[in-house]
Amino acid sequence: MANVTLRNVRKTYTGGFEAIKGVNVDVADGQFCVLVGPSGCGKSTLLRMVAGLETVTGGEIDIGGRVVNQIEPADRDIAMVFQNYALYPHMSVFNNMAYGLRNRGMAEAEVKTRVEEAARVLELAPMLERKPRQLSGGQRQRVAMGRAIVRQPKVFLFDEPLSNLDAKLRIAMRVEIRKLQRRLNTTSIYVTHDQLEAMTLADVLVVMNGGQVEQIGNPLAIYEKPATTFVASFIGAPPMNLMSTRADEIKSQLGGGATEAGILGIRPEDFVITDQTPAGGVALPLTVEAIERVGAETFVYGTRAQDEQRVAATPGELPPGEVIVRIPGTEAPAIGARIRVAAVRAKLHLFSGDGRTRIEA
Predict the structure, then answer these.
(1) For the chain, what is the domain count?
(2) Whole domain around residue 24: which residue ranges?
(3) What separation in angstroms does the CA of 124 have from each of 138, 175, 213, 321?
(4) Under 8 Å CB-to-CB from 334, ≥6 apart: which residues?
(5) What pTM did the predictor assign?
(6) In terms of domains, do 208 and 254 share one?
């Protein structure tokens, strides 16, 4: 096992396009680190640089105390699981898992021991003689993971390994990957664009945007205190409601010393439907536009508008816009209904006008 440290890592392609813009990340020995962000943010490029499949333009990649920038992928003591499984179709499950070990000249007895142990852990023992075409998508992904496990590497790298699976299987495999990583206690770096996957898997979460790191930390800490409006809107489903506010509104609602406009954030689950405006909190009159019932909870989509029956300058009332409210159960107001929702002061998030800085009021 080993720690992985990225120091000011950069990647610039021919023509001057800078895909990675000085990334610093420290993954401790045995940690499960997840790189998450939208398509094109640079997360897969960063992972491939750690693997040695992309050259490093600047900075250092350190694995287990050794800078590996100039070291070939095969000599970095890492194992990678790809999105498309990358199995040899003409080989049995056993031979797919054994292939890399045999290439390294390992004794056949040791190869057999390692493959059978990995197959036992992954519940693949009854399938060792099957070909990949005889397996389901989840079973193929487990074979790909088994091929990585038998290597007994210092670091596991996962490049969106669950993207080709259906929703139910993704959930099951997500649980299996986390259980397996805890059992093996091997340092792991995992790339996904799915924020729910990222939240449930990670010990440390790295949120990326435009080739840069927006925020690093414990998943729950990031959810509760996003550093930027990008993180606030990307982490969480449905996303955080973000609303522009004037300086005088910020002062009256949050008690802060703001001197310019800012952005107020409220998570959908932090609203309640009520006629009351909590002290120090905010209240919004809404017209219900759509309802989504998803089982144990319901999403209410509303449009903010000034309520003709209320005074426009009511303290804590924000200007027009769209809002998502998350409520428990299946009971919901009718489409077209006028309602009022509120959030207490402790559940409000405030950001600078450009969305790049969190403001602690």
Answers:
(1) 2
(2) 4-233
(3) 11, 17, 38, 53
(4) 288
(5) 0.86
(6) no
